[in-house]
Design brief:
six-stranded parallel sheet
Length: 378
């Protein structure tokens, strides 16, 4: 783990804060690659996590914003900057401007570290960031010793990294996830020489950290079982972790843990025209496919669609016997043909659904790109 402690000059001038950084550097030196700086180093993009001290400086705020853009997790320690008595020392104009800066900075941070119960309670009242952690400062508190504080901070660094697994996944890891998912859904994929060549090129290059992030992502997107099946089918032994035992902050994604609904229409469609159109179809598989597309459309709108549901649609399209012309006519009547065409494009590009299983022609446009980001989230 590579950690940067960013402590601006006004924070460094406070002896207790300078001592805090020194303790972390000394105690964590053998457990992580850790360094401190009062100015942003040129190699800052190589760090796994950035710990910013203080929240009264514009450069610190820019660093947190830039790190968020570059998908580097950040931890912010206000160190008293948010306390009312520190904010009331200045004029009303400066207080307002500082408050805007502080709110933006704490909102952008992956997590906020507080040093006392009072500071934690005050920050929670602001409701600027729900990801908080109380770790007393051993320099000024007798509640913990230096080693205990340093170990707690190291756990927080790992917790923040694990809570941002989606952001840690780059192009190669993203492709690996989709290749394994393809094998997990469809055993025939492993017989494709092009698929096998790409898998042999990518999968062995993944590191232990890559596998940790892949499994965390797969667990959240409810495809971990399919990934494990894919690994068995390509006969690759990947490092194993028990995801449930990893401490993380709550995910921003909230899904129901079940497969894509194919029998019952979404609530808002129960009495709509689409309900009557679907019920008029005599082919049960056509009705189920149309229902699945409607559920995906509804979940995309509400940002509640796990990647598992895209895999469910793939399975239904490829392995069920249905009237393709009847399905095409049905979705045109329902007015969801364009949305379905974009889903077919995503299934083709991301999960390898071959053209012979396309009920309608795939559509590739900017809206398809936005839909892909919404569904895969990488």
């Amino acid at each position: 783990m590579k950690i940067l402690l960013y402590m601006p000059s006004y924070i460094e001038k406070r002896n207790a804060n300078q001592a805090l950084a020194s303790v972390l550097l000394r105690c964590l030196d053998r457990k992580a690659e850790i360094s401190a700086a009062s100015k942003l180093p040129s190699e800052w993009l190589t760090y796994d996590v950035i710990h910013v001290f203080g929240c009264n400086e514009i450069r610190g705020s820019r660093l947190v914003r830039k790190a968020k853009h570059e998908r580097i997790p950040t931890i912010l320690s206000p160190l008293g900057d948010l306390q009312p008595w520190n904010r009331s020392k200045h004029g009303i104009k400066r207080v307002c401007l500082t408050s805007i800066l502080q709110r933006q900075m704490t909102t952008d941070a992956s997590a906020v570290h507080l040093c006392s119960v009072w500071e934690l309670q005050h920050f929670e009242q602001l409701r600027w960031n729900p990801h908080t952690q109380l770790i007393p400062n051993a320099v000024v508190s007798s509640l913990v010793n230096e080693d205990q504080m340093a170990n707690a901070m190291l756990k927080l660094y790992q917790k923040v990294i694990d809570s941002n697994a989606y952001a840690q996944i780059r192009t190669m890891q993203r492709r690996a996830i989709l290749l394994l998912l393809q094998a997990g859904i469809d055993a025939e994929k492993t017989n494709d020489p092009v698929y096998k060549a790409e898998t042999d090129h990518i999968i062995p290059t993944l590191t232990a950290t890559d596998w940790r992030n892949i499994r965390l992502y797969a667990y959240d997107e409810q495809i971990l079982d399919l990934i494990e099946i894919g690994l068995k089918r390509i006969q690759f032994n990947a490092p194993n972790i028990v995801v449930e035992e990893i401490e993380r902050f709550p995910s921003i994604y909230h899904y129901e843990k079940k497969h894509l609904e194919s029998k019952t229409l979404p609530d808002h469609c129960q009495k709509a025209r689409n309900c009557r159109i679907i019920e008029a179809s005599e082919d049960s598989n056509v009705r189920e496919l149309a229902t699945m597309v409607l559920h995906i459309k509804d979940e995309v709108r509400r940002h509640t669609m796990p990647l598992l549901h895209l895999a469910d649609l793939y399975t239904k399209l490829k392995f069920s016997d249905y009237d393709e012309d009847g399905f095409s006519d049905l979705i045109i009547q329902m007015g969801i043909d364009a949305f379905t065409a974009r889903l077919i494009s995503i299934l083709e590009v991301e999960l390898g659904l071959t053209e012979g299983f396309h009920p309608i022609e795939a559509r590739r446009d900017n809206e398809t790109k936005r839909l892909t980001r919404n569904i895969i989230k990488l």
